[in-house]
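Thread title: Can someone regenerate the structure for this chain?

I was given the following input by a collaborator and told the matching structure tokens would be attached. They weren't. Posting the sequence so someone can regenerate them.
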Amino acid sequence: MKLKILTRDEVAKAVNMAEAIETVKKAFIQLSSGKAEMPLRAQVPVEKRKGVTLFMPAYLVDSDAMGAKIVSVFPENQKRKLPTVHAVVIVVDAKTGLPTAVMDGTYLTALRTGAASGVATDLLSRKDSRVVAIFGAGTQSRTQLEAVCTVRSIEKVWVYDAVPITASAYVEEMKKQGSPIPEDIFVAGSAKKAVREADIICTATTSFRPVFKDSDLKPGVHINGVGSYKPEMQEIPARTVVRSKVIVDSRQAALAEAGDLIISIDGGLISDKHIHGEIGELAAGKISGRESEEETTFFKSVGLAVQDVSVAELVLRRAEEMKLGIDVDI
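Best answer:
Regenerated them for you:
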């Protein structure tokens, strides 16, 4: 049996952000249309390291794409100067059940997470959005900014991180990326300064408490929350959640894992009916999106295996066309 091995750089070379956004959008539509098999991910906590390893399989019927991701989230890796997230993705031939590829999933996770926010931003943010606030300056935040800039003409970016030197390094790196990312990228000295003129906010942190105040938001802002993936984690203020139109990647997954929603539900501030719908329903035109320029919209994503599998299948196809990777006998 031959298996194709693809590195991080090869994954990045095979698929760009615009392509990932379109692919993830189609995956969301299939999921919300009942055309995907996706069990809730299995979590294996590693308490003494404050980490967790997740096992995430999925099958997309229309795309005929199947596979699984193994991803570890270890926040303490920052002290070791290692990425918080590590992952591999396995692609399985849906016709035969034969494993066909193993690829770096760390960058792919960031790519598909950014792509999800790209889909939501395109469908929910104001068309005239020009200013973005980024919370967190890790790997995920890089693709969050890239995705938002892919779907909107962004002119200014504010970055806030609990570690200022990390935010400064992020700014210097992203300034060099070029179009569609603007040159006007600045470190915000406070959360308030980051959000006060933001049209779009992306939160990609491992915070257990809100990273900004609701009172500091301007009217009509759109928020992408991708950092909190456990019931006790929270990036978005409860008051913001209560007054926002809330769209999720998956109702089932969000109600099981999204602390930003679970904390407000458990506190009696909202019920599960406060969730307006899934992003796949919105993409398919089954539910309404933004209904006024003043409305606050909030996309909550916990990350889904259908995103990984759909992008990985595209990566593999492109890699074969571009003759990327190495084939090994196992």
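The CA atoms of residues 37 and 59 lie 5 Å apart.
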